[in-house]
Amino acid sequence: METDNTPKVKSDPYAALRFPEFRAFVGMRFFLTFGYQIQAVIIGWYIYHLTKDPLSLGLIGLAEAIPSISISLYGGYVADKSVKTVLLRWILLGLFTCSTVLLLVTLPSVQATMGQQKIIWAIYAMIFLIGIGRGFLSPTVFSLMAQIVPREHYPNSSTWNSTSWQIASIAGPAAGGMIYAYAGVTVTFAIVMAFIALSFVSLLFIKGRPPQFIPKESIVKSLSEGIRFVFNSRMLVGALSLDLFSVFFGGAVALIPVIASEVLHVGAEQFGMMRAAPAIGAVLTMVLMSRHSPMNKPWRNLLFAITGFGLSIIGYGLSRNFYLTLFFLFFEGAFDSVSVIIRSTIVQLLTPDEMRGRVSAVNSMFIGSSNEIGAFESGLTARLMGTVPAVVFGGCMTLIVVSTTYLKTKKLVPLGLNEIHPPAKE
Hints:
Elements: H1 20-51, H2 54-81, H3 84-105, H4 108-114, H5 116-148, H6 154-183, H7 185-203, H8 219-231, H9 234-249, H10 256-263, H11 268-289, H12 298-318, H13 322-350, H14 356-367, H15 370-385, H16 387-408
Helix pairs in contact: 1-2, 1-5, 1-6, 1-7, 2-5, 2-14, 3-5, 3-7, 5-14, 6-7, 6-11, 6-13, 9-12, 9-13, 9-15, 9-16, 10-11, 11-13, 12-13, 12-16, 15-16
């Protein structure tokens, strides 16, 4: 029998989707993520095709992560004081322009005129500008979703939002690889532009709302207010820290190519299955969670999910059987998807409307590039101690982080969803 802590909204797995503006929002996120994932894949392929240097691939992530992290706090401030839909239009226009430039520099006539080195620098420059756009995009999207869905539907909206993102993240790279192989890089960039345009059109179906934050003090004081708010909330700090360190130490999925080749001794087809397994686990779990929400005891379930994530990483590192490895990778994605939904819902519930952009910006600084940094950590530890020990080390460190967090947040474990409220204003 359901307890009083379980919100009634759980009985309707499509609650958030019944709002037309949220459907438009999900469409916008899906089209943009799908196009972005296609673009990320073909930029990697194309840069390596030009340079034949593995370091050039690492520089792609660095060129995007540095501006994204650097600008995110200011991006949150701008998001809070702006009409979200108007700001998003400008961001999408900027991303569309960057994709246009990427298309132009791949044209044979432009290549003949510019030369290879200038083309490479132009691509990195566009990646840098995309990173700036990403620094504004995350807090703006986070703030907008809270405006178009009532508070009681936040858990369901987080589930569908994350599900659409995961599906786009699976389908985008696969589509990008096929389109690049059959149609070439220029046509692929044109398709990326088409998906950004579809995202822009979806945004037009969302009504603009006036900002609830009107700056009355300096930008430095406003930003400090957002930082203080996050660090004064034990649950917020705990959720963001768990995300940061679990992804940092659990970034061993980046070592799948090495595991496939050096440990399991399988080919390209099996490698593709290994890459897909975490995402498939994530999507199937998110669909399941649209009917069975993990938010009845969110903090308890978050700790369980990240514990499962760490154990899956350890199993993946120790496995010597291909199908057993797929099993562990599937559950790594499944447990991670549970934690993503719980964390995003907690942040939504605890953040006042007028501070959503700045709090989301702090969130982005914690985790915005944790995947890239986690991949670097895994690569470094693999170099120092070997691939399998590096993977097992990452899983064990994740379990240590969860245990430490549990000891510091025991009072949060029994809380139900309806007991999580934004702190009272002074």
